[in-house]
């Protein structure tokens, strides 16, 4: 198997199972035009997040790392009527592109984009004592994964789902001597989850147009 095969299969699945979507395709095109890095979730994961939100009857979703709004669009479409998605983005340029993409998808009424460092934004959100989030998707700077996960635990309830993306790192996550800060961030996250009795988790390896990676899914059990 090769990267070319993974990409071809992704395109095949997107065309016949996921079904092409103008708003999502536009968000990818506008993000590319604006020079954003092409690190958004693959369409299969985007659709999985939407289906998960729908199956949960999610009323509140939190996303850490907006980029161009692609995954936010997927998840916001899975909200129940009257639901809300809050997405956090540090980069002002990325946030501007995302707002345009979200507005074009007709989702501005249910998506709130908060601009600024995510850890500061999470602190401010928690200070408001908000209702618990049903679903949290973490896809931002990997060295901060443990901090993001701890905040997610504070902002969720029993039955909530926390998903962290990009946790396999081309398989490099198994090397304790790897000096890459992103790899070490994932390893520290795994150590945190291993010692955390409030969650039950698994990690799924994936291949896609983004290469070899994976995501961790954690159920908050109490």
Overview of the molecule:
- The protein is of the alpha/beta class.
- The chain has one domain (3-220): 3-Layer(aba) Sandwich (Rossmann fold), CATH 3.40.50.150.
- 43% of the residues lie in helices and 20% in strands.
- Strands 3-2-1-4-5-7-6 form a seven-stranded mixed sheet, sandwiched between helices.
- The longest helix has 16 residues, at 3-18.
- The N and C termini lie far apart (41 Å).
- The mean pLDDT is 97.
**Rg calc:** 17 Å
Helix/strand structural class: alpha/beta
- In total, the number of domains comes to 1
| General form | globular
Major beta-sheet overview: 7 strands, mixed
N- to C-terminal separation?
41 Å
What percent of residues are in strands? 15-25%
* Count of runs of 4 or more consecutive helical residues: 8
Order of helices and strands: HHHEHEHEHEHEHEE
Bin the helical content. 40-55%
Poorly predicted parts: none
The CATH class:
Alpha Beta
Q: Name the CATH architecture.
A: 3-Layer(aba) Sandwich
CATH superfamily annotation: Vaccinia Virus protein VP39
Q: Remind me, CATH topology?
A: Rossmann fold
Beta strands, count: 7
Mean pLDDT: 97
Task: Give a short synopsis of this structure.
The protein contains eight helices and seven strands; from the N terminus they run αααβαβαβαβαβαββ. The protein is of the alpha/beta class and 222 residues long.
